[in-house]
Amino acid sequence: MSTLLRILKYVKPSAKWAFAALGLMVVATVVDLLAPWVLRNIFDEGIARKNMGTVLLLTLALLGMQGVKSLGAFAQGYTQELVGQNVVFTLRKEMYAHLQRLSFTYYDKAQTGQLMSRMTGDIEAVKNFVGFGAMMLITGIATFFGTLIFMLSMQAEVTLLSLSTIPPLLVVMWLFNRKVGPAWGNIREQMGRLTTTLQENISGIRVVKAFASEKKEQSKFAERNEQNFDTNMQRAKLEATAFPLMGFFGGLTFLIMIWLGAVYVAKGQMSLGTFMAFQWYTWGLIWPLNMLGWQINIFQQALKAAPRVFEVIDTKVDIESPADGGIDAARIGGTVTFENVSFAFDTTAAEPSHVLSNIQLQVKQGEVIAILGATGSGKSSLIALLSRYYDATAGSVSMDGVDVRNYNLEGLRQSIGIVPQETFLFSATIHDNVAYGRPDATQEMVEAAARKAQIHDFIVNMPYGYETLIGERGVGLSGGQRQRVALARAILMDPPILVLDEATASVDTATESAIHEALLEVMKGRTTFIIAQRLSSIRRADRIVVLDNGRIAQMGTQQELLEQDGFFRRLLEQQEMAAASNS
Ligand SMILES: Nc1ncnc2c1ncn2[C@@H]1O[C@H](COP(=O)(O)OP(=O)(O)OP(=O)(O)O)[C@@H](O)[C@H]1O
């Protein structure tokens, strides 16, 4: 019930259209109810009394009524679709906006395919109910009871006796409703899983092919496809049993009415006109009942689909700006302090395993900090706390002495230029990809950023220069080129804090040293965090932080760390040995 009420809330803004559709429905229903009554009078007042004028007049009235009904049906069809589409529009807008606000913690667990199927199929199922479904349900109920009133007023006995088929019909409907609900729930869930399998396969198609796993993937998909097939067939079996049974009882009503009607006409207790009108009216009883089977289907589908959409919309946003909008981060200088910071990804676990423990680090404005450590030691996690991708579980991260949680989130993130390990490029021109964070940037600004990232020469040699489409539908770029586009993207933001996460990992040594030269310029005056495995990438760091299993194991200048027996010296020795054996 609460789901239904919540769905109706989305209809509220279109209330005037919904009422217009209802009004038109009432017109069409009244016309429908009056038509058999006019027919009765054609017989009883016209034909029986040989009054052809009345016959002509009433036939013309029937024609006019048919015209009004058709016009009403057209307008109603349009308006009910308008109401449905408005609901779809609002739900999609709300869900999309909420998805933009949800944090990394949500996306760590979310399945893209499930989200896509909720955004499309499930919302569509809700629309089918609020538009067509609900209107047909109301039309059906109005027609049924309206018809009943007309019939009872004309001949109560025949009407009541004909209705003896209604109780078994209601039992069939009740059983169908009970069984078809869970089937629709399964179908909606399975569609989500099917879309997830498809989406993962397409995103990971390179891995699939590299491991020649096409057959395995096909059978995984086939399994889910079969589940969906089976559940749909179970649903079809329910429909195939229930609908004809409903049809049978509906037909029986009609036959009983004809038989009883004939008996009553013969006995003189019913006029021929009423008998003819009853034949017409009986359909007014039967079709709403028959249609009810479909309506139950549409209703149950919506009832199972809507909570899947609401679940996303209701997910709590755990990382956002403070309620008052937060402190403007536009003038952040770049002093960063980690004050006894500990962090675990899953804080809901009974014993959260800490990825970072008791991090104590003060970074001056303009300082270049290199973060080193074995894989999985927590380097990316440490950096993720700066932009509030996640919040520290204990302790605090502050910038210019203000806890990051007190800044306006948008401003905070705009103050931190990040070149991530994995670059995502949008299906857009290379210009738009570089200017992603600053769409208002001039061509000169974009080019200057690209020059600093050592990618300008490559771009101008592309088929359409900066206007070349890249990403899914455009030209592919190599790993190193993608990384340099990401670097240009960050440089263009002109942020006081720069984060380079293995930013030169996938470029050759010559490009790497060229980028480093350029970076020297870029890093000037900016607080920079460089996560790197290669020593060449950190040569210009003022200070090095070595992480070990989420704790700071070493910290100091390159010279200081060289004098200690620790991770840094071992790394240096290893890399020097590797360089010697390569030469
Ligand atoms: N989204 C996540 N959810 C849960 N655990 C995670 C998540 N991301 C990373 N971890 C875990 O946190 C630990 C630290 O990971 P992190 O990515 O910070 O390490 P890293 O030092 O940057 O590693 P690498 O050098 O391989 O990039 C790892 O043990 C990893 O398994």
Automatic annotation (TrEMBL):
Cross-referenced CDD domains: ABC_6TM_YknU_like
Recorded GO CC terms: plasma membrane
Residues spanning the membrane: 17-39, 51-68, 129-151, 158-176, 242-266, 278-296
Record-annotated ABC transporter domain positions: 336-574
A Pfam family the protein falls into: ABC_tran
Molecular function terms, GO-annotated: ABC-type oligopeptide transporter activity; ATP binding; ATP hydrolysis activity
Keywords: ATP-binding, Cell membrane, Membrane, Nucleotide-binding, Transmembrane, Transmembrane helix, Transport
Lipid bilayer topology: Multi-pass membrane protein
Localization of this protein: Cell membrane
InterPro entries registered for this protein in UniProt: AAA+_ATPase (IPR003593), ABC1_TM_dom (IPR011527), ABC1_TM_sf (IPR036640), ABC_transporter-like_ATP-bd (IPR003439), ABC_transporter-like_CS (IPR017871), P-loop_NTPase (IPR027417), Type_1_exporter (IPR039421)
Domain ABC transmembrane type-1 per the UniProt entry, residue ranges: 19-301
PANTHER family per record: ATP-BINDING CASSETTE SUB-FAMILY B MEMBER 10, MITOCHONDRIAL (PTHR43394:SF1), ATP-DEPENDENT PERMEASE MDL1, MITOCHONDRIAL (PTHR43394)
Official protein name in the record: ABC transporter related protein
Organism: Paenibacillus curdlanolyticus YK9
